[in-house]
Amino acid sequence: MTATIDTGFTKAERTDVAQELTKVLADSFAVYMKTHGYHWNVRGPEFFSFHNLLEQQYRDMWAALDDIAERIRALGVVAPQGHATFANLTSIKDGDPDKEALEMLKELMKDHETLIATSRAAIEVADSASDEATVDLLTQRLAAHEKFAWMLRSTLGGR
Ligand SMILES: [Fe+2]
Q1: Which pLDDT tens digits describe the chain residue by residue (159 residues)?
Q2: Which GO terms label this protein's molecular function in UniProt (predicted)?
Q3: What distance in Å separates the CA atoms of residue 26 and residue 29, rounded to the nearest whole number?
Q4: Residue 157 Cα, ligand 1 centroid: separation in angstroms?
Q5: Among the CATH numbers 3.40.50.300, 3.50.30.50, 1.10.8.60, 1.20.1260.10, which is that of 11-155?
């Protein structure tokens, strides 16, 4: 038995929005993994503060992954799963455990800027489909990544 979907969207709208959410999910997963890895491997005199800052950020992103994937499901599209699948969906590179602490933070700041751009592009598509629930979720993700970029930028001495 097949249950049909009637949530007020056309199939094309659901597919288009889910595709944008999938990009945000893949970028978020990559930045989550890098942040957690740098939380483990960061070294130097600022260890404790960097280690804790990164923990705060990876915990937020970990929780968000579930919300984003479940929004894709609510749109009637399957969520991606598996390392290879995720790797193919993102342009964010793996972290390097031997990087200097400040270089790690700088790299993450840039990654959040990428996520800000990915989220904004996705919001535009969700908005044109009048998908308020997705716009709401992505607006929260946009604000989170702007905040994380600010925290990393300020830790590096920028405004
Ligand atoms: Fe930890």
Answers
A1: 788 999 999 999 999 999 999 999 999 999 999 999 999 999 999 999 999 999 999 999 999 999 999 999 999 999 999 999 999 999 999 999 999 999 999 999 999 999 999 999 999 999 999 999 999 999 999 999 999 999 999 999 988
A2: DNA binding; ferric iron binding; oxidoreductase activity, acting on metal ions
A3: 5
A4: 25
A5: 1.20.1260.10
